[in-house]
Amino acid sequence: MALTIDVDTGGTFTDGFFTRDGEFRMVKVETTPHDLTMCFMSCIDEGARALGFGSSEQMLVRADAVKFSTTVATNTMIQRSGPKLGVIVTKGHERDLYADGNGDDGDTGGLPLASLIRENMIAGVSAGSDAAGITVEPDQDEVRAVVGRLLTSGARAIVVCLRGSFDDPAAERKIKEIIQCDYPRQYLGAVPVFLSSELCARDGDHLRLNSTAVNAYLHRELARYLYKAEEDLRQSKYRKPLLIVHSTGGAARVAKTTALHTYNSGPVAGFLGSLSVARLYGLQNVCSVDMGGTSTDVGVIARDRYGWEFTPRVGEIPVNVPMIQIAAIGGGGGSLASVDGEGGLRVGPESAGALPGPACYGLGGDEATVTDADLVLGFLNPDRFLGGRRKLDVEKATEAIGVKVAGPLGLGVEEAALLIKDKVDSMVAEALEAQISEKGLDPSGFTLFVYGGAGSTHCCGFGAGFARLMVFPYSPVFSAFGASTLDVMHAYERVRDVTLCDSDGSITPDLDDFNGPVKEMTDVAWRDLRGEGFPLDGATLELELEASLEDGTVKVLSPYLLLEGEDQAREVCEAVHREAALRSGGEEATGGRVLVRAFRLTARSPVEHVGFARLEPEGEDPVAALTGTRPVCWGGTPDETRVFDRGLLRCGNVVTGPAVIEQDDTTCVLPEGRKLTIDACGNGAIENA
């Protein structure tokens, strides 16, 4: 019996997706910001009940895998709640932090790292690469003096980033050795040391410093929560490693998780869930929108591929740790609506969060939110929110919108609520258009996947430009569902310049320069996969190359890991040229120099995934799911509108708008001119009526 557990903590709610032998259950509990392990275990308790177990222990002892995506890293950056850091750089770079303005090392204006590290917490030592590129070894007495001063000033962790340490990490390692000799790990006074050469495989001292400092800043809180979550599971009889979702698109045990790789992992899980569903339907071009309580995340899959950000920003700080490309905007169900000084409506980026939440929660919040607007308009059932576990207060929502928006704008409350809805819808629509257009793509060929607790409520607004939209019964917990589609994965990178093919088309005779970095990575990959505690049956390795041609750079999957001769090397070069032609729309070149700049190896070990049974059509008439009517404001006077229960809709049923389709954790709002059809996978396809 396959049993998997996937939990995603968001800013407002914590979602669970539980599968057993092809069936699934969804759970949504409120996030506990003060201790995310509380909502994590609460979600697991609810999931055990939903699957019919007498206790979470009975479920966990049978579980094949537990995966967790968390907002700890995101929250730490937003709240700036990380520890005080001490930073050691090569002497002479204490002020510029290697941002020398040459265009290769990221932003020079304002040095955003200053928001994490005070100037007096940065110290220089005479070590690292000198002007001639020769590595200078650190002086022990100088290092001890510098570290002592930083610790006396309150440093709780030390970041070391020396000039040129990407090419030669020996000096950084020596500094770590000196520190750990003076402050051994077994002592209470031990201090964590983070080396840039251990985190980043790319050169560029400024971005390596940024990345290492951000990772150190996130590490303490994340380690505390994740090890506690793992211990809580162990106490509840779970015997396998807790797997943490990474923003690179896989999952790994806590001990092999780098803090920086967890940043934005929830949205990434949802996005990759979209990719899994797109492949199930054979769709090559999909836009995804995850509209939750705090924010909305937008992603694009084009030609069955997604994009990467190689210099993403983490809390406005550029880093050089690759992350899957997703755009976030500050508009969700909990986003605050207000009137600015010029009399314009403003929605987000501030959010009411889980506490106090929207005014309609009745927990002391008095700010108007998108959820309050949805309630006032009649989109939401005040008695069924979170399956009836929370009653929504229409009067408090009406009062908040009246005071914060309607009054200042001189509008009626329902007019103001419509304005809030239209505003957030237009924000998401603009983000979608920007994501598609910047890639030079035509939106008419895309299907829109919509999920998140607020996604189905607003999809026909922000998705008006799409002919086909998809909503899912597991939409409100889609990031947790997405986590269930992920395998154990480790990613590795080596940056080397290796000429594989010369300008005259001849293959380099010595393939050791190519095979060397690949062999290094494969050896580490198999070791790491064995350490995860899962069977290696079915484990796969995949090599991506970043290669430069005369007219640009492309990324391509290599048909081979290790090259065994000229013919295989030529096949790799041909694959590079084919990819370049595909990207440019031109003809495939048959020759020319191919310079491999970077090697990226992905190692995967499959875990159990849910499989969905195909459903048999039961007719178009949805009358069996009709539960009644209620007044809904579509733009003028509220109209009595049909209400359907999503759980009672069957394969083949067609609901035409205007209609409201309810389930415990989300509501789909279908305006006139649109229809929803339940397909053979149990999902809802929205098209023009």
Question: Could you provide a short overview of the structure?
Answer:
The chain is of the alpha+beta class. Helix content is 30%, strand content 26%. Among the domains are: 3-77 and 223-262, Nucleotidyltransferase, domain 5; 80-218, Rossmann fold (3-Layer(aba) Sandwich); 488-605, Dna Ligase, domain 1; 623-688, no CATH class.
Structural summary, described in words:
The structure is a single chain. Among the domains are: 115 residues, Nucleotidyltransferase, domain 5 (2-Layer Sandwich), CATH 3.30.420; 139 residues, Rossmann fold, CATH 3.40.50; 118 residues, Dna Ligase, domain 1 (2-Layer Sandwich), CATH 3.30.1490; 66 residues, no CATH class. It is 30% helix and 26% strand. It contains 15 helices and 35 strands. Strands 13, 14, 15, 20, 23, 24, 31, 34 and 35 form a 9-stranded mixed sheet that branches. Strands 3-2-1-4-11-12 form a 6-stranded mixed sheet. A 4-stranded parallel sheet has the order 6-5-9-10, sandwiched between helices. Helix 1 packs across helix 7, helix 3 crosses helix 7 and helix 11 packs across helix 12. The longest helix has 31 residues. The radius of gyration is 27 Å and the shape is globular.
